[in-house]
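U., I forgot to send this yesterday:
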Amino acid sequence: MKYFYIETIGLLISLVTLSKGIQWFSREPPSKLYVSSGGTARLEWDYNVRNRTAMFDPYSPEWALYNTSGFRIVIGVEDGYNGWKFVISKQCPPRLRGRVSKESTATLVISNVTKADERLYECSLLLLAESPIRSKVQLVVTERPRFTTPVNLSTPINEGSSLCIRCSAAADPMPNVTWVRIIKNPTFISDGVGEAFLRFTNITRHQRGTYECQATNNPNEDPVRTRTEILVKYIKATSAVIKWDSPVDDGGSPVIEYKVQINTIPPREAITETTYCVTNDLNENTTYDVKVYARNAVGYGKAVCTEFTTKEPKRKAVKEMILNEETDDIVKSPVASIYAGVIGVIIWIGLISMAILVVFIKKIWVKKGKEQRQVRLVLSNKLPWIIYIYNKVCNMVYTGETVLDA
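Result:
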């Protein structure tokens, strides 16, 4: 009997020593597992064990969840007395029965998940010789985000103006919203929880293009997307963007709108709710007076006056330039190169023709080195061209339709 106790104690000590050197879980789910509502949640666990019968409790592994009160509820176990088959526990919530199962070694599967399934789940390896080995995962059930503010397919704006586009989305949990610029390598612009803003101050033509708003609350799903095309209108020498600041003192009532007056012929007047105004079809290199009035519930206040001068017209460039849509780089236009080539050919033809004409006249005029002959030179286009011919005897000048006698 004495030797039996010694062997039993020795076996337990060896089991404890062996268990401490084992990495029990070879696979665990992430700390948070995101699954779409209506989808299938796979809580993937796997473990290493050399002898289940010698090391495991007869009801191990064990799967459980924690309710909203933090109380632990057993979902199911593997029954060592029944060939280690997966058995649903009597404690398993009724809403999970028929939707929960086990795959592979220790993967817990919950089909058609709902928000009620959003709980903390646990897989426990119950050992004979030491404390249980536990692994936990938080299941997050997500709804597909939906945009709550419409974004226009295209947004026209004048160069030099300011722009702010709000993109918002809702879902459970609240999605992350991001603005990106769609070019060869998409560029991050801004982000936020539930909403994000696309802002431009003094926008330029190089900022035109396609911008996309993305919303996501599940890293395992593609985000929902909506796009807008920013169309920047160029301000010419005959256009102007008039900007002003909101009044410091609104008289105790917020500003409703602004009135802008310009002393054109005839005078112009514009009403706007923004703090800027674009006016077109002005005269180049001309000074104009501007008056801006702010209106609240009482009426219009005193005018703020200023003046501006439109630009002088620019000379046309010798070479036409175009803008690369992808990189915003300036590149030479192939049309300009073609024009340059054509002009060059015309110049060469003209020079060769003039040389041939000079040689022809010289042969007629000069005979035997010093003799002069009567010459009649008629230019086909009847233009008053002058041709200078140089001879060894003298210098003669010929004009179209002229007869010189020897």
